[in-house]
Amino acid sequence: MKNPLDSIVGTIVSGFVITLLLYVFARNFLGITG
Amino acid sequence: MDLIIDRWFHILAGIVWIGLLYYFNFVQAVAMPKAKADNTAGAISKHIAPLALLWFRWAALVTWLTGAYYLERASHLGLANAFLLQGAAAKIGIGAWLGTIMLFNVWVLIWPNQKKVLGIVKADDATKAKAGRIAFLTSRTNTMLSIPMLFFMVAGPHGLPM
Question: How much is the pLDDT for B157?
Fold first, then answer.
């Protein structure tokens, strides 16, 4: 499988995916809502 | 130092750091193979990259130090609370963890390997190639991490629900 970090698009998409994962983590496991 | 001044320097240094990170990733890394193909890469390696890396690595350190100072001095946050993801500091704490990982990457992985690539430290061709790959992937990792880092840095102070 190609490393997504080898392309700029792959890097940016990976950044958005990690943002979404951390957002879900923060809301569900840290109790951050506001 | 007054916190508003500290935060101002934190954001200014952060713009220099992440601005140069985006320059390396979106401009220099894309242009370099083309410059090598027509033998004009020497000027970038000799004059531009070392200066950009100088501002880049020191701006990274100033960003982290002013950010840590802010977290410690801001009575509603706290440095320990941020890194332990506690209470009101939890949101910005995620940003602080990401920024800390990125600072580590700059000083421990990118800069030592770039010194080999640019010839500041002597290395054979195989070592240079390996160092270049490590520096490239670490720089791309930081670009990737800058996206959630910025989200969590600005999530807290502007009063918007997350």
Answer: 63
Question: Which candidate in B18, B26, B151, B152 is best for mutational testing of the A interface (most A CBs within 10 A)?
Answer: B151
Mark residue B125 as left, alpha or beta (left: phi above 0; alpha: psi -120 to 50; beta: remaining). Answer: alpha
* Interface residue A13 vs chain B (CB under 8 A): no
Contact list in A for residue B25 (CB cut-off 8 A) is: 8, 11
pLDDT of residue B25: 97
Q: Residue B80 has which token pair? A: 């320990």
| Cβ B26 vs Cβ A8: under 8 Å | yes
For residue range B108-148, list pLDDT tens digits in order.
999 999 999 999 999 999 999 999 999 999 999 999 999 99
- Could you tell me the pTM of the whole model? 0.93
Residue that has been written with the tokens 């509603």 in this structure: B76
Which of B48, B49, B51, B64 is CA-nearest to residue B14? Answer: B64
